[in-house]
Amino acid sequence: MGKKYKVAVVGIGMVGKEMLRVLHQRAFPAGEIRVLATHARTETIDGRDYEVVAASPDAFEGVDIALFAGTEGARGASREFGWLAVEKGALVVDNGGDFRMDPRVPLIVPEANAEAMREHQGFIANPNCSTIQMVVALAPLHEEAGLKRVVVATYQSVSGTGRSAVAELELGVRSSIDGTEFAPEVYPHPIPFNVLPQIGGLSEEFPGYYTEEAKMVLETRKIMGLPDLPVSATCVRVPVYNGHSEAVNVEFERPISADRAREVLGAAPGVVVMDDPASSVYPLPAQASGEDPVYVGRIREDRSVPHGLDLWVVSDNIRKGAALNAVQIAEKAIEMGLV
Predict the structure, then answer these.
(1) What residues are paired with 91 via a beta bridge?
(2) How would you class 47 by CB atoms within 10 Å of its CB: exposed for 0-12, middle for 13-18, buried for 19 or more?
(3) In sequence order, what are the residues at sequence separation of 6 or more whose Cβ sits closer than 8 angstroms to the Cβ of residue 41?
(4) Structural domain boundaries of the chain?
(5) pLDDT digits (tens, 9 = 90+) for 143-177
(6) Which CATH architecture has domain 131-317?
(7) What is the model's pLDDT at position 75?
(8) Which residues are catalytic?
(9) For domain 5-128+322-335, which architecture applies?
């Protein structure tokens, strides 16, 4: 039998619960799973009871791997306890956004840049959900033809905001059907039967961009090791419960046909190609929800540039876009002897 690891999951919201599911489903070599949150309680997930312990410095004693489950926009846990957990001997994998661009911290999508983990100082960051799925699709194509420019428009589900946004969408839909009054609290405008071209606050670094769009620019460059890669993003919230979709336009340095792109993506880890437009076969967020892969379809040549492709990329933002990617980082760290 191999070594067993003491694992802490910090946070028990949508991402934290999904991390616990993924750890069990993938038979992660955990001898102990310790769940930490703001206050102690018992949580039941998929029939398993978890005794949640209040997070404190002492709670990280003896922990080998700490998975911080912070959702987008949520700050505090990794800021307060992340580097402290490292000092106590844990490898930290942080789903929050506080340290992604920190030069000390590798930003990892295992299918794309696992080797960058070797430079870790005890702390590894999980990218933003929308960046993760795009990079899983871009990495094998970059190896084949070299990225020159990326333009992406996202269609992001409300689960990316958290449980309150899911509840707001459901309430708003019911109110619209019933004809009752509905005042949004999570979003600046009603999300039912609507699309909102705003995710996050306005970026200071990129005037006119919202922070989700800036993240996609900066994180893609860091993950791909291309600090000057031209990336443009427009991020849109749509009335979908779960699963993000992206229309990605890519310009390459070298020729690549749509047929060759299908071959490359079909052989790529973590990717499933669904591309038969004549039969209306293409990825849908309803199909991707609850599933591990990044799905790619609508693969076609962009004839407005010499070497261009258009892609439709869909994945479960809570699973691959957060929980699964974090657990895969931990698995890869074990495989590479880094923990």
Answers:
(1) 65
(2) exposed
(3) 52
(4) 5-128+322-335, 131-317
(5) 999 999 999 999 999 999 999 999 999 999 999 99
(6) 2-Layer Sandwich (3.30)
(7) 57
(8) 129, 244
(9) 3-Layer(aba) Sandwich (3.40)
Number of CB atoms found within 10 A of residue 162's CB: 18
pLDDT at 72: 44
Q: Is the pLDDT of residue 94 over 60?
A: yes
Integer Rg of the chain from CA: 20
> Which residue type is seen at 209?
Y
CA angle 145, 146, 149 (to 5 degrees): 120
Query: In 3D, which of 196, 187, 184 has the Cα closest to residue 236?
Result: 196
Tokens, residue 141 = 């194509």
* pLDDT bracket for residue 1 (50, 70, 90): low
Q: Tell me the C-alpha distance between 66 and 30, whole Å.
A: 12
Q: pLDDT band at residue 2, thresholds of 50, 70 and 90?
A: confident
159: its two tokens: 């689960």
What's the pLDDT tens digit per position in 263-279?
Answer: 999 999 999 999 999 99
Instruction: State which amino acid sits at residue 86.
Output: V
CA distance 230 to 220: 10
The upper half-sphere exposure of residue 270, i.e. CA atoms within 13 Å in the direction of its Cβ, equals 24
Percent of the residues in the chain that have a pLDDT greater than 70, as a whole number: 98
